[in-house]
Design a protein that fits this description.
Elements lengths: L1 H28 L1 E2 L5 E8 L7 E8 L3 E11 L2 E14 L2 E6 L4 E7 L2 E4 L14 E5 L8 E10 L2 E6 L5 E3 L4 H10 L7 E13 L6 E7 L5 E4 L8
Antiparallel strand pairs: 1-14, 2-3, 2-9, 3-4, 4-5, 5-6, 6-7, 7-8, 8-9, 10-11, 10-13, 11-12, 13-14, 13-15
Length: 232
């Protein structure tokens, strides 16, 4: 009977420990001071096949970014594309790595950012490649995401495969029910493919905010308990 009780209790203790650890990670990776929530830049960059590339770049303090690019006045009208990933600063350069592995490079110039070429070198041109700082919120354009989803004690978290960051989830009943059907044990992390956007919301801790993953409303998602994030 003692062995049987241990077998039942051990997974629950492990799950509790997991959420305790993830709670610490939430504080360090997704919670930031309101005054230093993010750095936002905007500008209209040159475009070969349109009237300009309206660009909005949001650098979050947790090391993630959202890049929204609007190709203005194409044959099919304005075309909006949003990418997400991780950013790193090296000396005076900033490198963006999207969740698909593509890289973008910028160099600090005054209080703005100048776009560089694919090799991280200066673009020799008289055209404007400068983004200037603005006060703007994170865009609500959807981005495709893959990661590990866990739901326990009426709270859901998502560990993003591309960045390794962990975010609380603005959960839905559909996600909860699908997760309960897909998991093997309580507290299991199950691989999830989903479209969503990030939003800064007040934290339960007074005076702090946190970045939350908001799933696409009535959108499609897929759990796969036989997959996991690729090792880096």
């Amino acid at each position: 009977m003692i062995v049987k009780s241990l077998r039942i209790a051990l997974p629950l203790l492990m799950a509790a420990g997991l959420f305790s650890l993830q709670g610490c990670q939430h504080q360090s990776s997704s919670q930031v001071q309101p005054a230093t929530q993010q750095q936002s830049y905007q500008g209209v960059l040159p475009c070969a096949d349109c009237n300009g590339l309206q660009t909005s770049l949001f650098l979050n303090q947790d090391g993630t970014f959202v890049l929204q690019e609007t190709y203005l006045a194409t044959r099919d009208g304005d075309q909006v594309f949003t990418s997400y990933g991780q950013w790193l600063r090296s000396a005076d350069k900033i490198t963006l790595t999207t969740n698909s592995g593509d890289k973008r490079h910028f160099r600090s110039e005054g209080n703005g950012l100048r776009m560089l070429d694919r090799n991280g070198e200066a673009i020799r041109s008289e055209l404007n490649y400068l983004l200037l700082p603005v006060s703007a919120a994170l865009p609500t354009a959807l981005v495709p995401l893959t990661g590990l989803y866990t739901y326990m004690a009426d709270a859901a978290i998502f560990e993003d495969c591309a960045t390794g960051k962990i975010f609380p989830v603005a959960n839905t009943a559909e996600l909860e029910q699908a997760y309960l059907a897909a998991r093997r044990e309580p507290g299991d992390a199950v691989f999830l493919t989903i479209n969503g956007f990030f939003q800064v919301r007040p934290s339960m801790e007074a005076g702090r905010v946190q970045t939350v993953l908001v799933p696409e409303r009535n959108g499609k998602f897929r759990f796969d308990r036989n997959r996991s994030c690729p090792k880096k």
